[in-house]
Amino acid sequence: MSGHNKWSSIKHKKGREDARRGKMFARFGKEITMAARDGGGDMDMNPRLRTAVETAKENNMPNDNIERAIKKGTGELEGGTLEEMNYEGYTPGGIAVLVACVSDNRNRTASNIRAYFNKHNGNLAENGAVSWMFQRKARFVVKSNFADEEKLLEILMEAEADSADLNTGDDSIEILAAPDEFDNIANALSEAQIPVAESGLTFVTDNTMLVSDPDMARKIIGMIEEIEEDEDVNEVYTNMELPDELAQELAA
User: Is 139:174 a contact under the CB 8 Å cutoff?
Assistant: First the structure.
């Protein structure tokens, strides 16, 4: 998980995609739509939807955008059917990459992802080639000013979220747990009136690969950044591990 956390830290410090309002709102909107599609539009009965909406509001997403996303998921608003799809491959240097997409056009998405891998001399692989290195997890991020680690541990223990693991950053705490714990943790945080800055299902890996060469690290990050620019891409996961000094240099 350390590789996942360092990469998240780099993206946070650089203020990249999530600082770009349009991309951020599009990602939140897709999560809301998928949650409404899978669990219905009633937030009282759908913890994933409730948490997605709360997260969007915490990040100042307009209410009109949120309502449209919900209605799109429930079928009340016409639009292309969103579909989740993952693409797997390797960057230069052999780093495993898992690209999580939500799209209404599978052909467009596949074509774009293939082009990114070709442009950066990566290798797009068959399904299953690298996904075995990653575990699906429920993920929540809470700002440290709303709750400290001790408070969150107390909440998680009372909720009997046995699989939960905490990772403390500079100004936030990340909760990772088994996917089937999502609703339980979402309800516990909501009942404790703890705002959630980010939430959703993610992938993490313990099978990391160290990259200590700065030039190679920049090539890999350049490839990932371009893939993340695509409107159909929700997140890019890798098993890249960086030495602390290099991670700090790239985050500067």
Answer: yes
Tell me: do 215 and 119 sit in the same domain.
yes
Whole-angstrom distance, CA of residue 246 vs CA of residue 214: 7
Q: What is the mean pLDDT of residues 117-123?
A: 97
% residues pLDDT > 70 (the chain): 91
The count of domains in the chain is: 2
- Amino acid (1-letter code) at residue 102: V
What is the SS3 assignment for the chain? CHHHHHHHHHHHHHCCHHHCHHHHHHHHHHHHHHHHHHHCCCCCCCHHHHHHHHHHHHCCCCHHHHHHHHHHHHCCCCCCCCEEEEEEEECCCCCEEEEEEEECCHHHHHHHHHHHHHHCCCEEECCCCCHHHCEEEEEEEEECCCCCHHHHHHHHHHCCCCCCEEEECCCEEEEEECHHHHHHHHHHHHHCCCCCCEEEEEEECCCCEECCCHHHHHHHHHHHHHHHHCCCEEEEEECEECCHHHHHHHHC
The pLDDT tens digits of the residues spanning 9-59 come to 555 445 454 556 777 888 889 889 999 998 999 998 999 999 999 889 988
By residue range, what is the domain housing residue 109? Answer: 83-133+206-251
- Same domain flag for 116 and 98: yes
Residue type, position 121, single letter: N
**Is 48 within 8 Å of 186 (Cβ atoms)?**
yes
Find the CATH number of the domain harbouring 173.
Answer: 3.30.70.980
